[in-house]
Design goal:
Shape: rod-shaped
Number of strands: 0
Oligomer: single chain
Structural class: mainly alpha
Helix content: over 70%
Length: about 140
């Protein structure tokens, strides 16, 4: 007859003693406490994320408004520059008209009237300076 082999007794961690139920309850309470803490942290992070998302939305709206205002200001600046340039050209034309009559005065100055030559030189310097300014702008 062959020898009979008995299965080895299983060594389980389960303890059937009277203290095992209280250990399980204690472990269960610890896990529930950790779960509540985790859920609390998750909710806190969710609220922070929502606040950050709201700040981003507000910042984007502000950026859109600022871009719109900047565009309006740029258009206004271009209009003002064009108006300024037109005004300068008008003033130059107005100043050049007396210069043509001053050319007649220059002819008189060459004929012997030295007093008329001084305003002519001043007006020529003015136009030279004005032209330099306009070229600079």
């Amino acid at each position: 007859m062959a020898p009979v082999v008995q299965p080895a007794a299983r060594n389980s961690k389960r303890n059937d003693g009277p203290g095992s139920g209280s250990e399980l309850r204690k472990r269960n309470e610890e896990l529930e406490k950790k779960l509540k803490e985790s859920l609390s942290r998750e909710e806190k992070l969710r609220r922070e994320l929502e606040k950050a998302w709201e700040r981003v939305r507000v910042a984007e709206e502000a950026e859109e408004r600022l871009c719109s205002q900047l565009g309006e200001l740029e258009a206004e600046a271009v209009d003002q520059a064009r108006s300024f340039q037109a005004r300068v050209l008008t003033l130059m034309e107005q100043l050049s008209q007396p210069q043509s009559t001053s050319s007649e005065a220059e002819a008189e100055a060459e004929a012997g009237t030295q007093a008329a030559a001084l305003p002519l030189r001043a007006s020529a310097n003015f136009f030279r300076d004005l032209n330099a300014i306009l070229n600079y702008v």
